[in-house]
Amino acid sequence: MISGFATTEGTTNFVQNSGINYLNFNKFADLFLSNVGIGTYLGDSDNKTDELVKNAVKQSVLSGVNVIDTAINYRAQKAERSVGKAISELIAEKKITRDQIFVSSKNGYVTNDGDIQEDLMQYVIRELGKPGIVKEGDITSGYHCMTTPYLSDQLDRSLKNLDLECIDLMYLHNGIEGQIKDISKEQFLEKLKSVFELYEQKRDEGKIKFYGMATWECFRVGTENPQYLSLENIVEMAKKIGGNDHGFKFIQLPFNMNYDQALLAKNQSVQNKPVSILESTVTLDVGVFTSVPFMQGRLLSPGVMPEFNELKPSLRALQFIRSSPGVLAPLVGQKLPEHVSENLEIMNIPPINNDDFLALVKKLTS
User: Fold this and answer.
1) Residue 267 domain-assigned (yes or no)
2) In angstroms, rounded to a whole number, what is the distance separating the alpha carbons of residues 269 and 232?
3) pLDDT tens by residue, 257-279
4) For residue 123, with 0-12 CB atoms within 10 Å meaning exposed, 13-18 middle and 19 or more buried, which class applies?
5) Could you count the other beta carbons within 10 Å of the beta carbon of residue 352?
6) What is the H or E stretch that residue 328 is in?
7) How many independent structural domains does the chain possess?
8) pTM beyond cutoff 0.85
9) For residue range 180-200, what is the model confidence (pLDDT) as tens digits?
10) In the Cβ-directed half-sphere of 245, how many Cα atoms lie within 13 Å?
11) Which helix (H) or strand (E) element contains residue 360?
12) Is residue 98 part of a domain?
């Protein structure tokens, strides 16, 4: 297994070696991270897609992207394995070192194994039920599990899939979204506390560097919604468990020119002041990666997005997201070489500065 993790020195070297304008990297948690990342969500669980994903990750890294995002349930564990192969090949080819790239994965959803021909329930009973990793009642109606034995088991599987000794960032995947139909908010927060305790332990063991929450609804909805969570309260929870040096440093949420709540909805409160989730992350020192930049392609149709800066639709979408204050990087799902090339043209353009971005938002919302 490949040892190491992203470091200040390694990510600095990546920026210098990439030939990319340094404005296309954000410094966060003492790391220099590209302001576009590669996502690995969609695709069939077959060997052809494995090869496409592996090659897309390699092409992205060689084009100046050092943020790679995956999850154990993406393509039934095959996405993680494709990422692992890409990293191993890049290191073997001496194109990168482990300390130059930032790798995130997610656990929580129950998945089978795309390399084994059996249905989900057979797999769960054999791999998780019989060894006692999950018990009756642990898995919710949304096929989600956040018990510590389960998440610990899943982390070890993710490390094996990725062929890494340490994952830079492990997210709890859609925690409240996957749980709230079956348990109360209070029960969820108790579970979350035990998850954070587990993640702090895994940091001490050197298996992860940071942890976070990959979410869909909870940071975008109003306070009256059962799925709503206060980021300020969650950061406080992490501080109580891990001290000021706690590892809860990142969230992921949907954000694009259609899903604009992260930027425009003042649904969070920090120091008793109403703020958007993006404003709250800046104050609370939490990094944000964003999902669905193109709404799975729907935003790329002619006339769907307002035009600006004479950019083609894919670059417009990425430019808007990565220029939003508080966003570290949109995560782009890309497999075909021509899509990678087109999307990563954005790495030749600096992001919009704050004043121009505010003027653009004013123009788009007026």
Assistant:
1) yes
2) 7
3) 999 999 999 999 999 999 999 99
4) middle
5) 18
6) strand 327-333
7) 1
8) yes
9) 999 999 999 999 999 999 999
10) 3
11) helix 354-365
12) no
